């Protein structure tokens, strides 16, 4: 149909590409986290390495596919991408593009040349996202306290992921630089987010799954700190056990989350669960034959089951054309 005749813009037509959500990259974070968890669990529990290796190829190809689709959206519908940049919540999910690649680079650590190039591209890109998004917080007047939600952790706290592969690819000070940014902003944002949750209206239903993001910063900080320092010391234990407490706290509200209608935001369950699973596998590797072995195996099973369910629900939503729709 001729848009000049109808008066519709391309984004107002039935072209679903215009409404392809950047939040779908959060599925890459969950799948990459699952991949890393299986790769780490294989030697600990004598599991087939092929599972993790197969997942690694799958998530890498899936990431390339999503990146191609989103790039096509940027070329064809730049105004829609600008709207996501201007949105007080969606802007934070832009960083899932680079975080996804950072996590994939970790899964490829056994192939250093591949991992290094992925890490370099993702680290530079994520630093630019961090600067841009923090500037938007500082220089825009449209933010309100009700806009704050755990997704705000994504762009800045994502810096904590950089050292996990970074210690293998660059000078240690570069990794400490990114770790410091993420850790300090975690404390700042955690205060803001808890204030918003305690004293203001509840999160909208479709953002309820983002509460699980609260688990990710301390869990990833634990993994990253071990990569940087190598010591399971008091500070590392504080990070791990706080992440474990948050996991138990949110797990105690499982029925509340089950009642939330499915949306792409449900992928927010996946990466935080992957983070605490990987963190527990790290402790298990250092304390074999202990309670941590059982906990790590349990978490790996739950994580795998949840991602299978999320994948199924997402494919079902795609089949019924329930995603890539304009918001009303």
From TrEMBL:
UniProt xrefs under InterPro entries: SLAC1/Mae1/Ssu1/TehA, Tellurite_res_ion_channel, Voltage-dep_anion_channel_sf
A UniProt-annotated Pfam family: SLAC1
GO cellular component, one term: plasma membrane
CDD domains (UniProt xref): TDT_SLAC1_like
UniProt KW keywords: Membrane, Transmembrane, Transmembrane helix
Domain of life: Bacteria
Predominant place of localization: membrane
Gene3D superfamilies: Voltage-dependent anion channel
Topology of the protein relative to the lipid bilayer: Multi-pass membrane protein
Keyword Membrane in annotation: yes
Gene Ontology MF, one: monoatomic cation efflux transmembrane transporter activity
Coiled-coil parts of chain: none
Compartments where found: Membrane
Membrane-spanning parts: 17-39, 51-70, 91-111, 117-138, 150-170, 176-198, 210-228, 234-254, 266-285, 291-312
Protein name stated in the entry: Transporter
Organism placement in taxonomy: Bacteria, Pseudomonadati, Pseudomonadota, Betaproteobacteria, Burkholderiales
């Amino acid at each position: 149909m001729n848009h000049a005749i109808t008066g519709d813009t391309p984004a107002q037509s039935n072209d679903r590409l215009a409404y392809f959500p950047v939040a779908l990259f959060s599925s890459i974070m969950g799948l990459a986290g699952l991949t890393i968890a299986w790769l780490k669990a294989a030697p600990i529990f004598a599991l087939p390495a092929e599972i993790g290796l197969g997942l690694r190829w799958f998530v890498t190809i899936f990431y390339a596919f999503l990146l191609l689709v989103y790039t096509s959206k940027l070329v064809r519908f730049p105004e829609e991408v600008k709207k996501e940049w201007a949105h007080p919540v969606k802007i934070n999910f832009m960083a899932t593009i680079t975080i996804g690649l950072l996590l994939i680079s970790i899964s490829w650590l056994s192939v250093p040349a591949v991992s290094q190039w992925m890490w370099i591209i993702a680290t530079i890109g994520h630093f630019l996202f961090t600067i841009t998004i923090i500037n938007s917080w500082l220089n825009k007047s449209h933010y309100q306290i009700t806009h704050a939600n755990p997704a705000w952790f994504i762009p800045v706290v994502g810096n904590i992921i950089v050292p996990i592969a970074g210690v293998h690819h660059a000078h240690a000070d570069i990794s400490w630089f990114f770790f410091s940014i993420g850790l300090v902003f975690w404390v700042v944002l955690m205060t803001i987010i808890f204030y918003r949750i305690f004293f203001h209206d509840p999160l909208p239903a479709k953002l309820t799954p983002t509460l699980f993001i609260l688990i990710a910063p301390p869990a990833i900080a634990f993994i990253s700190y071990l990569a940087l320092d190598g010591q399971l010391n008091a500070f590392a234990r504080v990070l791990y056990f706080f992440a474990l407490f948050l996991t138990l706290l949110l797990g105690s509200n499982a029925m509340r989350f089950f009642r939330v209608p499915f949306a792409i935001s449900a992928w927010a369950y996946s990466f935080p669960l992957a983070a605490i699973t990987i963190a527990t596998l790290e402790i298990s590797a250092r304390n074999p034959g202990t309670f941590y072995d059982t906990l790590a195996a349990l978490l790996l099973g739950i994580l795998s089951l949840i991602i299978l369910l999320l994948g199924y629900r997402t494919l079902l939503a795609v089949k019924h054309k329930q995603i890539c729709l304009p918001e009303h």
